[in-house]
Specification:
- By secondary structure, the protein is mostly loops.
- The protein has one domain.
- About 15% of the residues lie in helices and about 0% in strands.
- It is globular and about 30 Å long.
């Protein structure tokens, strides 16, 4: 059974050159030319969580538990 996801409404998906590699809302790659971080620090992930990001925009890691 395939579950259809609702399309992400984050504006990075429509930009010709987004400033981030991963979408903060859905975690999909939005910019292949932006270099990905191999490992981010916990401090950087904490900053992204304070900005209410579900995913890290640098490494794509899921930051919050999805319901």
């Amino acid at each position: 059974m395939i579950i259809a996801r609702e399309p992400c409404l984050n504006f990075n998906h429509g930009r010709p050159s987004p400033p981030v590699r991963y979408c903060p809302s859905c975690g999909e790659v939005v910019n292949n030319s932006h270099t990905a971080e191999a490992m981010c620090s916990q401090e950087k992930h904490a900053k992204h969580r304070r900005n209410r990001n579900k995913y890290c925009t640098d490494c794509g890691k899921q930051l919050v538990k999805l319901q």
